[in-house]
Amino acid sequence: MAKITYIEHDGREHEVEVRPGLSVMEGAVKNNIPGIDADCGGACACATCHVYVDDAWRERTGKASAMEESMLDFADEVEPNSRLSCQIRVTAELDGLVVRLPERQH
User: Fold this and answer.
1) Which of 41, 80, 85, 100 has the fewest CB atoms lying closer than 10 Å?
2) Which of 19, 82, 11 is nearest to 53 (CA)?
3) Strand, helix or coil for residue 6
4) In angstroms, rounded to a whole number, what is the distance separating the alpha carbons of residues 54 and 19?
5) Neighbour count for residue 16 (Cβ, 10 Å)
6) Structural domains of the chain ordered from first start
7) Which of 18, 24, 74, 23 is closest to 48 using CA atoms?
8) Measuring CA to CA, how many Å separate 92 from each of 19, 20, 89, 102?
9) Phi, psi for 8 (deg, rounded to 5)
10) Alpha carbon 76 to chain centroid, angstroms
């Protein structure tokens, strides 16, 4: 299991264990993390699972695909560290990952 910390826009932290192979979005949904709606169920067809990846983790989570970048165009408050959490696969190497949620996504 990998521990992932989801931080709401107001600073509330939720540290949960997520099984490798799931997405960061699936970990949020399974643990009722507020602010991750996942309207498309992880199909990279909406931007309701938008997160900011903590700078220390950006390289390990990889780069966004062209499709993901297109979907991020529909997200509010996009930053250089923005990702769709449905597109980040949890691995043992992501144990300790920290993501923050945008203010408008609560």
Assistant:
1) 80
2) 82
3) strand
4) 20
5) 16
6) 2-100 (3.10.20.30)
7) 74
8) 9, 6, 10, 26
9) -70, 160
10) 14
* Percent of the chain residues topping a pLDDT of 90: 92
Contact by Cβ (8 Å): 61, 23: no
d(CA 82, CA 99): 10
User: How far apart, in whole angstroms, are the C-alpha atoms of residue 13 and residue 31?
Assistant: 13
Q: What are phi and psi of 83, to 5 degrees?
A: -145, 160
pTM (two decimals): 0.94
Amino acid letter, 40: C
Q: Residue 101 corresponds to which tokens in the numbers above?
A: 């949620």
Name residue, tokens 């990952």.
97
Q: Is 93 helix (H, G, I), strand (E, B) or coil?
A: helix
pLDDT by residue (tens digit) across 60-78? 999 999 999 999 998 989 9
Best CA proximity match to 18, nearest among 92, 84, 86: 92
